[in-house]
Amino acid sequence: MATMQLTAENFNETVLADGITFVDFWAAWCGPCRAFAPTFEKASVAHPDIRFGKVDTEAEMELAGAAQITSIPTLMAFRDGILVFREAGALPAKAFDELIAAVEALDMDDIRAQIAAEETAAAQQA
Length: 126
Prior knowledge:
The chain is α/β, with parallel strands linked by helices. It is 46% helix and 22% strand.
């Protein structure tokens, strides 16, 4: 699957869908963003079963603000609608490949159980 452009209109439906979605928040004027772009695009071709989306922070300022983007590039990974990774900075290709493998290997039942336990604890403290 090729990289898709994400906007305020399609962001939520894309990242909340089942499966894995990587999102690159970027801007045309950002050197590190331009340096990371070929790595991101190459990964999108190598992993057709994963969604890869890009958010142009200049065109989608409201979306970038809602996502609390303060530095670009910022890379996010969602799995089954759950944010499982967020980090600012351009990753080298090898590190991005390792991140993709790590997200694929996640035990989502365990992650959902951890989230439920955290929500229960927070509710008990309230």
